[in-house]
Amino acid sequence: MFGMTRQVDPRVALRGRDHEILGRCEHEVFGRDVREVPEGSEVAYLALGCFWGAEKLFWQLDGVTNTAVGYQGGFTPNPTYEEVCSGRTGHAETVRVVFDPARVSYAELLAAFFEDHDPTQGMRQGNDIGTQYRSAIYTTSDEQAAVAAEVRDRFQRALSQSGYGEITTEIAPAGDFYFAEEYHQQYLIKVPGGYCPLHATGVKCG
């Protein structure tokens, strides 16, 4: 899939809408509404290319209590998938990962994040080209931001030793997260054998 490789000027971004595009939606694995944050859980927002395979990565991790896919890091309120793919909303395809920090740490989630894609590719992952496929970590606190920077730097050292270039992952405070359409939620359960590209470098976080 090919799209814009330069971030849209917010002055010409699509206008969007004032209502959510996702109604109530039960998670295909966890059996709860995809918006729910169970007691004691925290939230991480991670963008690593096509969100179908990325969401599956995280719902399979021990300690993750809910997941959802959506759009984040852009300018258009409540965008549709087609609008995001046009490159005119500024959003990245993002996974909202709800996790129990007593069972899995934020740093461990980030290790999985970095190891499961190539964070050096800029506005793409493999043949998926466009601003919506960029690598990003959207943080909810100063603590998350500090951990994200530490894990990024650690992974950069490992990547450099393996001959890879500089990490382009955006680390920024989390803005509004807009839930994607229902058919995107847990897509690889609804469509067995669906599109799920692998872009991991094979480098471990160390």
Report on the architecture of this protein.
The protein is α+β, with helices and mostly antiparallel strands and 206 residues long. The protein contains five helices and eight strands. It has helices at 51-59, 81-85, 106-115, 142-161, 187-190; strands at 42-48, 64-72, 92-99, 124-125, 128-129, 135-139, 170-173, 177-179. It has a six-stranded mixed sheet, with helices on one face. Strands 4-5 form a two-stranded antiparallel ribbon. Strand 6, helix 4 (142-161) and strand 7 (170-173) form a beta-alpha-beta unit. Helix 3 packs parallel to helix 4 (142-161). The protein is globular, with a radius of gyration of 16 Å. The protein starts with 41 loop residues before the first strand and ends in a 16-residue tail after the last helix.
Helix-strand layout with pairing:
Layout lengths: L41 E7 L2 H9 L4 E9 L8 H5 L6 E8 L6 H10 L8 E2 L2 E2 L5 E5 L2 H20 L8 E4 L3 E3 L7 H4 L16
Parallel strand pairs: 6-7
Antiparallel strand pairs: 1-3, 1-6, 2-3, 2-8, 4-5
Helix pairs in contact: 3-4
Keywords:
206 residues, alpha+beta, six-stranded mixed β-sheet, two-stranded antiparallel sheet, 5 helices, 8 strands
Number of helices: 5
**Terminal CA distance:** 32 Å
Principal-axes shape call: globular
The order of strands across the largest sheet is 7-6-1-3-2-8
Overall mean pLDDT stands at 96
